[in-house]
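Reopening this ticket.

The earlier resolution said the output was attached, but the attachment link was broken on my side. Pasting everything inline this time so it's all in one place.
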Amino acid sequence: MKNLLLILFVATGVLFTSCDKTENVIYDPNSGETLAFFEDNSASLEVLLGGESTIDVEVGVTTLSDQDRTVTVVVNEEESTIDSENYSLSTNDVVIPAGEYYGSLTITGIDVSLSTDPVLLVLDLVSINGGVVSDNSITVSVLVVCPIPNGWFTGAYTMEQISSQQDPFFPTYGEAFESQTVNVNQVTSTVREFNFSFFPTGFDVASTMTFTFDCGTIRARGLPQGGGLSCDGGATDPISQATSPNATYAEADLENDDVVIVEILNFEPDGGCGTGSYPVTLQFTKQ
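Inline output:
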């Protein structure tokens, strides 16, 4: 039988410097050229099933002016994957008021034909009167979500495995999911995340689990935080956790969060061990 190895991944930083001697344009608020830019490069727009939701996108400039300035924004049709029926923009001409550095536009997501699989809306800057625009874009991920009560399944829980099947190496390294306390955090309205110890007795691998409650299904992803377990010396991705096809929930389950039960797949992928995955049912009991 293959042995599990704890592989530590060490990130090294490499600094690249340019030998280009061309003079850079200086953008400063007093005497530099005006540059228009998106404040963020990415965003997420969660649209309630059958409804609408909005987000504001900020456009900034590097200088002040005593006059209003207009920044033109367009949809990058080639890079966008969203259908036009599923969104609208409040304007394509974002006004930066006199004496201000920022203006904004509103994106409305509309569930006509959206799904829980994200689609992309990519916006580009085209022009600004009296200046230049940055070549950066903003990519907005748009998807349907079903309402999850705010604060549901958050806080301290006891996590324990209640299914009988153990990992392929049991009992050599102890249980993969020994009973332990986890602190579940609300990342978004539908996403919950917590840190846990994988194989606490044998390896104590610091890991993070993310659950996405996806309109009746539960998507799971568990990953090591910095090092992982492998049978092939790290040649492939380390042992992780993924979504089980049997992981579902009903609307009635959202009425109480004293006990939450989720099925996941462990050893998905299996870190080159050749074992394949197997289902694990985890029970979370509120403390």
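Reporter confirms the inline version is readable. The first strand starts at residue 5 and ends at 8. The CA atoms of residues 237 and 271 lie 6 Å apart.
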